[in-house]
Amino acid sequence: MNRILLVEDDPFIVNNLTEFLQSEGYIVSAVNGQKDALMLLKQEVYDIILLDISLKDGNGFAVCKAIKSMGDTPVIFVTASGDEFSVVAGLDMGADDYISKPFRPRELLSRIKSVLRRCGKVQSVIEIEGIQVDTEKGLVLKQGNEIFLSALEYRLLLVFLSNRGTVISRNKLLEEIWDIAGDFVNDNTLTVYVKRLREKIEDNPQEPTIIKTVRGLGYKVGN
């Protein structure tokens, strides 16, 4: 599962883009300034950086220069500065692509996938306890046999995997799956969808080992 660092100081963009990319199977971290970005880059490894030029402190050009001095992590500038100078300056210092705001999330997703493929960093298959999820093909296998999930069940599974190792609340799950559900999704229907998903991926749905219930808090996948 590819890890993305989003360096952006607009909370609206951060919230919406994080939610969208997580729903597509990515692990997303976000910071709003140069100092926090550089600190995080010394502690964690990311597959790609989405980088704004105008930040809470510092600027994206300085962050890009630091990233490229550390290694070959690909960078996509995501910024309102769409003038020719900004584009050329970003590409000259090693940025791998550039997209101007406002942008369509699907277009950015396409650019992310293209850059990851070009840099040999595509990790499209996620595995957990005999379950394989190919996010490029939208394919789910259990012990090598295909499992057929509804669109909402697949989205729910991706949300769980994107939050692997952490407790995710029922309210958060409702927020994540709301926009693709044709019918009203409430707490009761969420319980039904989790039950259906468990029946398809768990060896024993009555004693789940993949999607675990954390009583009073929500659910957790993995350690």
UniProtKB/TrEMBL annotation:
DNA-binding region extent: 123-223
GO molecular function: phosphorelay response regulator activity; transcription cis-regulatory region binding
Signal sequence extent: none
Record protein name field: Stage 0 sporulation protein A homolog
Database matches in InterPro entries: CheY-like_superfamily, OmpR/PhoB-type_DNA-bd, Sig_transdc_resp-reg_C-effctor, Sig_transdc_resp-reg_receiver, WalR-like, WH-like_DNA-bd_sf
Domain OmpR/PhoB-type as annotated: residue spans: 123-223
Keyword Iron among record annotations: no
Gene Ontology CC entries for this record: cytosol; protein-DNA complex
Gene3D superfamilies: 3.40.50.2300, 6.10.250.690, Winged helix-like DNA-binding domain superfamily/Winged helix DNA-binding domain
Superkingdom field: Bacteria
Function as written in the Swiss-Prot or TrEMBL entry: May play the central regulatory role in sporulation. It may be an element of the effector pathway responsible for the activation of sporulation genes in response to nutritional stress. Spo0A may act in concert with spo0H (a sigma factor) to control the expression of some genes that are critical to the sporulation process.
Annotated Response regulatory domain residues: 3-116
GO terms (BP aspect): regulation of DNA-templated transcription
